[in-house]
Write a structure and sequence with these properties.
With 423 residues, this protein is α/β, with parallel strands linked by helices. It has 12 helices and 21 strands. Helix 5 crosses helix 6. The model has no long low-confidence stretch (mean pLDDT 96). It binds ligand LLP. Ligand LLP binds next to helix 10 and helix 11.
Length: 423
């Protein structure tokens, strides 16, 4: 069944679901469910078009690790030459834990604390993507105290519509992100005067799960207008950071391939005479989303009433995207059964009606069956919580025929290990 998102790494053999050279049902037996399973081959393959499109010029691909920050995932991308886009001190700590190079790290985010700035400067990050004038002031103070200069790129809000879910659209004037396009020149002029600040580049990030190339090209044009104005004012920008946000196919979306999108953006950049600048890019979802599945076992089938419920052992605490964004995630049995399908709402055991994973799905299932939720490599485990005192799932990384447990299932005791009773 080549229509599986994540194919060819995710595929069927004799009706059973395999990821690379491993039958996923075997992993569920060995490690229990819910279980996240990733393909290292799929991650490498997703990176390849980015690398190919940028090979001819100075560039840095910074994996936006918020999508999946598990150490073995970071290790995989570091080994492939990637840097990282981080949004917290905690993420930087993870990069350092896998031996990642801080000089290949860009630090994004609207609310960096002075402590985080200090930590990142001391570690030697490549660049701070500054999102406000207040942040610039604080960063200049922190750097001056440390007798350092902080390399800075201003994240400009280009005011373009990425045409995605409102919660993950970030490049409109009404969003909390970035510095307004019409303020950016003045902020650059101020940045150039500030002690402790070294102007390095410019960036944008207009949203996530973007399936249309047009808003990117609009954003590039707006950004280049600004680059030219800033340089006319005597401030040099050595790199352009194109952000992340390229969408993936969950069901029938047809985002442009990464190399095609990048090619189109580079064409604009070159046409306006900016081809010599270093290009940074911050993809997250498109590198890992279709490399992962979440395995879950059917606990209870509840027929009748208005709907049929297929109650599984994964829940919104493991995968919040449906509850939070009304997101559609693929759900497929790990072994196909030869019987008429019925229509099910696939839900978790959490005490909320919002705890659903897929609605009105046509499936042939019996209790005890194993299901795979597809495209679950991004913003899935990374957004997991312990709601209802549910330990977070284990994770396995497949590489060819080998399956590595890369995160143990949390124990129940660990859930309250940091808590104390009152004397
Ligand atoms: N750079 C910046 C500054 C970002 O804020 C983000 C994502 C990225 C890069 C990577 O974007 P990507 O290539 O992964 O689309 N939890 C949501 C997605 C939130 C995205 C936040 N920012 C979801 O599950 O759809």
């Amino acid at each position: 069944m080549s229509s599986l998102p994540g194919a060819p790494f995710l595929h069927r053999r004799a009706g059973e679901l395999w990821l690379e050279g491993v039958r996923v049902a075997d992993l569920a037996v060995r490690h229990g469910t819910p279980l996240y399973v990733y393909s290292r081959g799929a991650m490498r393959a997703a990176l390849e078009p980015y690398q190919r499109a940028l090979a001819a010029r100075k560039h840095l691909i910074c994996y936006a690790m918020k999508a999946n920050s598990t150490l073995a995932v970071l290790q995989t991308f570091a080994a492939l030459g990637c840097g990282f886009d981080i949004v917290s001190g905690g993420e930087l700590k993870r990069v350092l834990a896998v031996g990642g190079d801080p000089a290949r790290v860009v630090f994004s985010g609207v609310g960096k604390t002075a402590e985080e700035m200090h930590f990142a400067l001391a570690a030697g990050v490549r660049c701070f993507n500054v999102e406000s004038e207040s942040e610039l002031t604080t960063l200049a103070e922190v750097a001056t105290q440390m007798k350092r200069r902080a390399p800075v790129s201003l994240r400009v809000n280009p005011d373009v519509d990425a045409r995605t879910h409102p919660y993950i659209s970030t490049g409109l004037r009404g969003n909390k992100f970035g510095i307004a396009h019409d303020r950016a020149l003045a902020v650059y002029q101020r940045a150039a005067q500030l002690p402790g600040i070294e102007v390095a580049g410019i960036d944008f990030h207009i949203g996530s799960q973007i399936t249309d190339g047009a808003p990117y090209l609009e954003a590039v044009d707006r950004l280049l207008d600004l680059v030219e104005a800033v340089e006319r004012a005597g401030v040099t920008l050595s790199h352009i950071d194109l952000g992340g946000g390229l969408g993936i196919t969950y069901t029938d979306e047809t985002p442009p391939p990464a190399d095609v999108l990048i090619g189109a953006m580079l064409e604009r950049i070159d046409a306006r005479g900016h081809g010599a600048r270093e290009i940074l890019i911050e993809p997250g979802r498109s590198l890992v989303g279709n490399a992962g599945v979440l395995l879950t076992r059917v606990q209870v089938l509840k027929r009748g009433g208005e709907r049929n419920f297929c109650i599984v052992d994964a829940a919104m605490n493991d995968l919040v995207r449906p509850a939070m964004y009304n997101a559609w995630m693929g759900i497929t049995p790990c072994a196909l059964r030869d019987a008429e399908p019925e229509t099910w709402d696939v839900v978790g055991p959490i005490c909320e009606s919002g705890d659903w994973l897929g609605r009105q799905r046509s499936l042939t299932v019996v209790e005890g069956d194993l299901l795979a939720i597809t495209s679950a490599g991004a913003y899935a485990m990374a957004m997991a919580s312990n709601y209802n005192s549910r330990p977070r799932a284990a994770e396995v990384m497949i590489d060819g025929d080998a399956a590595h447990l890369i995160r143990r299932r949390e124990t129940m005791e660990s859930l309250y290990a940091g808590e104390t009773l009152i004397d």
